[in-house]
Design brief:
It contains 11 helices and no strands. With 200 residues, it is mainly α.
């Protein structure tokens, strides 16, 4: 291996460590300082500035990297393959696994608006899955695909937040989300919605 390649590899690892630390810390506290991020990445403040001139540049890099990881989770879920219910379960499991990256990327939507080349391919893939499920009679056709998608994202976000705050064990988040998504909040033995909710 050449010296140049080794240096390039080392620089790449350092940059990834800084970006990852930024996303993790900022997901928990948007006020985290560059000094705190450098400490979490185990680099000096001067080293951080050799990679990122200022906070805005670092935040942008962390957002772009987080979106790429989220998109990869959707791709890995192969949402266009197999039964729709199984695909949705894979999707939820994959998104939950992104954890802090999802919380960071979608915790402040104004950051996404500052990305001129932002193309939410993941949204289109999820919409296609939902519409396929509706066409096959698996997902509720009485509500829009947009509504179902927003519900999925909201529940995944809430689950990731619950894990971050210690309210739900990380390994149990996906199961919580899937159970609620598929069954709603009504107990399986609670009778029909009309019996359960109609006032006397």
């Amino acid at each position: 291996m050449s010296t140049t390649s080794a240096e390039s590899g080392a620089r790449g690892r350092t940059r990834r460590a800084i970006v990852s630390a930024a996303a993790t810390l900022l997901a928990r506290d948007r006020r985290a300082t560059l000094a705190e991020i450098a400490q979490a990445a185990e680099v000096g403040r001067s080293t951080l500035h050799r990679y990122f001139a200022d906070r805005d540049e670092l935040v942008r890099a962390a957002v772009e990297d987080s979106l790429a990881l989220i998109e990869q989770a959707v791709l890995d879920a192969a949402v266009d393959e197999g039964p729709c219910v199984d695909a949705m379960r894979r999707l939820v499991t994959g998104l939950v696994a992104t954890g802090d990256r999802l919380l960071f990327a979608f915790g402040d939507l104004s950051v996404l608006e500052e990305l001129p080349d932002y193309d939410d391919r993941t949204e289109r893939m999820v919409t296609d899955l939902i519409e396929r499920g509706q066409a096959e009679g698996v997902f509720d056709p009485e509500v829009s695909a947009g509504w179902i998608m927003a519900t999925v994202w909201a529940m995944v976000y809430t689950g990731a937040e619950a894990a971050q705050q210690g309210r739900v064990p990380p390994h149990g988040v996906a199961a919580h989300v899937i159970r609620t998504l598929e069954g709603g909040i009504r107990r399986p033995d609670a009778g029909t919605p009309a019996t359960r909710w109609t006032r006397p």
